[in-house]
Amino acid sequence: MTVITCIEDLRILAKKRVPRMFYDYADTGSWTESTYRANAEDFQRLKLRQRVAVNIDQRSVRTRMIGQDVAMPVALAPIGLAGMQHADGEILAARAAEKFGVPFTLSTMSICSIEDVAAHTTAPFWFQLYVMRDRDFIERLIDRAKAAKCSALMLTLDLQILGQRHKDLKNGLSAPPKPTLANLLNLATKPRWGLGMLGTQRRQFGNIVGHVKGVENMSSLSAWTSQQFDPCLDWNDVEWIKKRWGGKLILKGVMDAEDARLAADSGADALIVSNHGGRQLDGAPSSISALPAIVAAAGSRIEVWVDGGIYTGQDVFKALALGARGTLIGRAFLYGLGALGEAGVTKCLELMRNELDLTMAFCGFTDIEKVDRSVLLNPPQ
User: Fold this and answer.
1) Which pTM value belongs to this model?
2) What is the fold, at CATH topology level, of the domain defined by 7-375?
3) 381 pLDDT exceeds 90?
4) How many CB atoms lie within 10 A of CB 192?
5) 166 is catalytic
């Protein structure tokens, strides 16, 4: 039995168990992947001040994100195709998050539907919305999220067009997998995954198939989605969606101080500093390097969170030091899901909480809400 001590252990196990096209989908960036790499590397450049002889007996990493109590300032980010990393993946991840006490976000492009996840959980989850040209579908999707009692809507702003990801093109990514010889040979080496998929009916985009006129199977779905991401999305659409939704609104994909001011002006409850995990504009800065300027621009009018390159609790700590009120993890929990299913997601969260608690203690803090730039030896200007 492999002893799991860090997220990297989960990644290695996931790579062994998940079919190549779906592992590569999760673990890839666009073009040269320079932004994808920078997301993690720039966290490593931040150095911490270790303090001693401070009473660190009573510590807490509990806090709140948009008014919601959380076991630590970490939420599970929306991941398309998570149900192809492991059978019923979104349901399993949502259950793990609920038991642990952190928010789970379901993607528009999930395999398990909004209704599926709601039926298998008791705590409200968040729903992530992509804006499509088909506004009637978007209205119905928002209404379905309301009916499922989702407690926040996360609107992704940085996918009006799709970045080019070379590995996805070479692998012929699809759900279910295209029966090419290369893919069939690779699937033959993943028996655990295959057995899991045989045991579930959830193998297509559950929020879309059967909910859009003319989209009843994967071939018609492919044609629909390729034409649907809306390049016309602007701040007027954000206002329209905010009114239609009527609840907590989170804006994902902000990487510029001017956009942060516009996000705060919109009346949204939180924004996420995010470059889509390095999967959209290659050559953009890392999320953590963009964070300080966005925190300064947004002020106290909107909660600022960050995602991208967060693989340890220490990364979470550094993000808080630079002014983030919360963080989101994507690949980290996806590795756990692909490796061990629900237990793997739980393991990921346990590892991150332990790393966050230990880092806070070594830096002489007992309350996660009081962490600031003073913990950094080399804070960015």
Assistant:
1) 0.96
2) TIM Barrel (3.20.20)
3) no
4) 13
5) no
